[in-house]
Design brief:
The complex is a heterotrimer.
Chain A (H helix, E strand, L loop, with lengths): L1 E11 L2 E11 L5 H12 L18 E4 L2 E4 L12 E3 L2 E7 L7 E4 L2 E3 L1 H9 L18 H7 L10 H5 L1 H5 L5 H12 L7 H8 L13 H5 L6 H22 L5
Parallel strand pairs in A: 1-6
Antiparallel strand pairs in A: 1-2, 3-4, 3-6, 5-6, 7-8
Helix pairs in contact in A: 2-6, 6-7, 6-9, 7-9
Chain B lengths: L2 H4 L10 H28 L5 H4 L2 H10 L2 H28 L7 H29 L1
Helix pairs in contact in B: 2-5, 5-6
Chain C lengths: L11 H28 L1 H4 L2 H9 L1 H28 L5 H25 L1
Classes of the chains: A alpha+beta, B mainly alpha, C mainly alpha.
Bound molecules: iron/sulfur cluster (SF4) (2 copies).
């Protein structure tokens, strides 16, 4: 057991400050444990979002020492403190940053834009026919997109992306990865519909493979790789459109 | 678009060298090279008419650009170009979806190749400079 | 199922493809350029050799393609940076990009013919 300092950004866009909290942590304490400790024992007014505590719900992503991550799966023993003051380790906790998230209060940001973008790329199976019974898929076909289904929509990738942070209109790594996830699914028939959306200048073309999204992703989804494959797909789609006059359907 | 947001890509904290910082340097070196392109245009405009004057202005031009400070700047510029080129080759492959899962390895291999190229060119230039 | 509302075209992929193609060109062009001007050239650069080279039709073509590539690649990169900042005036940015690119290319060709 040791005591650390949690330096939390408190307040709202009009009035805010960093406040220090002295928190005891164990060897296996997570950042989220420490936040609960603060709320239960020190300051009941601390706001943050969290639910499952096991990296499934995607609510608890925050900036920990300027790095976006899900706090439920971030152990203090696994990260370096931001600084050491009076012999105590200091960890800085801030809400997810960037133009894509509106800061509401304390550690809570507005995910509306994030989910609107996600919805806009049609993240569901699209069929031209009305199939009866099951759609059969081989393990090989499943493997093509399976890792991408692990995305929990935590938004860490978007907070990490330098482009999402300056351009609020960029679709962002999470939505683009979801588009590729369905395009790579053998049961789906809506590939061109999605490509028509993501080949927009605010779609995959704002990505320059800085791959910070893949570093941040707690689920190892690797959005950066998925987006580059999406670029190749959309180039094919647009070239066909320009030279053969084929449109999305 | 806010000022704070538009400067975000300059931030280094929490970023990986082979990813976000490589991207930052790719941009900065790109801007430097673009700026240099126009300086290059301006410099070349000094040579207009060499054909008729028989190269007198070219001799003056050479005298300036072959002075030590210019050669030193040239060598710095080579570094900028070799970084942009080496990282750029990596990006061409990556953006086609090749090698995206071994980002660190790919980045460092390209950096080593870039530095080797830069040292070779610098060696040749410095040798020629000292031999004059 | 057809859904017409979202179907529109975009030239962004073509711009991207050109960025990559000019990138590959430039590894070659700039390699040659650096070699003849600085490596080989540091020893034997004379106005005669330069004039001889730029008056050769093959070299002239080489320089023009190089010029177009470098101007496109550089300015398209800059255009990307501007877009990344989240500017809304996309057509204005594109128009400016083309104007500057064309002026630069014309000026470069003018230099090539008047040196
Ligand atoms: S891709 Fe990863 S970081 Fe992005 S929302 Fe999904 S789980 Fe989170
Ligand atoms: S790879 Fe693309 S989406 Fe991911 S952080 Fe970089 S620019 Fe953003």
């Amino acid at each position: 057991m040791e005591n650390i300092i949690l330096r939390i950004k408190r307040g709202d866009p009009n009035h805010w400050e960093y406040r220090d909290y002295d928190v005891p942590v164990e060897k296996d304490s997570t950042v989220l444990d420490a936040l609960y400790y603060v709320r239960d024992n020190i300051d009941h007014s601390l706001s943050f979002r969290a639910s499952c505590r096991m990296e499934v719900c995607g609510s608890c992503a925050m900036m920990v020492n300027s790095f976006p991550t899900t706090t439920c799966s971030t152990l203090f023993s696994k990260i370096k403190p931001a600084k050491i003051e009076n012999g105590k380790k200091v960890y800085i906790i801030e809400p997810l940053r960037g133009e894509s998230f509106k800061w509401i209060r304390d550690l809570v940001v507005d995910f509306d834009e994030f989910f609107k973008k996600h919805e806009s790329i049609k993240p569901y199976l699209i069929r031209k026919d009305n199939p009866e019974g099951q759609l059969i898929q081989s393990p090989k076909e499943l493997k093509k997109y399976y890792p991408l289904t692990l995305c929990i929509k935590c938004g860490a990738c978007v907070a990490a992306c330098p482009i999402s942070n300056s351009d609020p209109n960029y679709l962002g790594p999470a939505a683009l990865t979801a588009a590729y996830r369905f395009n790579a699914d053998s049961r789906d028939q809506g590939k061109n519909l999605r490509l028509a959306i993501v080949s927009d200048p605010e779609g995959c073309w704002r990505c320059h493979f800085s791959s910070e999204c893949s570093n941040a992703c707690p689920k190892n989804v690797d959005p950066a790789s998925a987006i580059q494959k999406l670029k190749v797909q959309s180039t094919g789609y647009e070239l066909k459109r320009i030279f053969l006059g084929k449109r999305g359907e | 678009m806010s000022l704070k947001g538009s400067l975000f890509w300059i931030k280094i904290k929490g970023r990986q060298i082979s990813d976000g910082i490589a991207f930052l340097f790719h941009r900065l070196t790109g801007l430097v090279i673009l700026l240099y392109l126009y300086i290059h245009f301006a410099a070349l405009s000094q040579l207009i008419g060499s054909q008729s004057t028989g190269g007198q202005n070219f001799q003056n031009f050479l005298k300036t650009v072959e002075s030590p400070p210019f050669v030193a700047l040239d060598i710095l510029l080579f570094l900028v170009i070799f970084y942009h080129g080496a990282n750029g080759i990596r990006l061409v492959f990556s953006e086609f979806g090749i090698g995206t899962s071994r980002r660190k390895l790919f980045f460092w291999i390209m950096m080593i190749l870039g530095v080797i190229g830069w040292i070779l060119l610098t060696y040749i230039v410095v040798k020629a400079f000292l031999g004059r | 199922m057809t859904n017409q509302e979202s179907i529109k075209g975009s030239m962004a992929p073509v711009a991207w493809l050109f960025q990559l193609i000019t990138a590959i060109f430039m590894v070659f062009f700039l390699g040659v350029h650096l070699w003849i001007m600085h490596a080989e050239g540091s020893i034997s650069l004379t106005i005669q050799s330069i004039l001889q080279r730029i008056n050769d039709p093959w070299w002239k073509t080489f320089y023009i393609v190089f010029l177009v590539s470098v101007v496109y690649h550089g300015l398209n990169g800059l255009r990307g940076i501007v877009f990344d900042l989240g500017v809304k005036k996309k057509s204005l940015t594109n128009a400016l990009f083309w104007i500057v690119a064309i002026i630069s290319i014309i000026y470069g060709i003018y230099l090539l013919y008047s040196i």
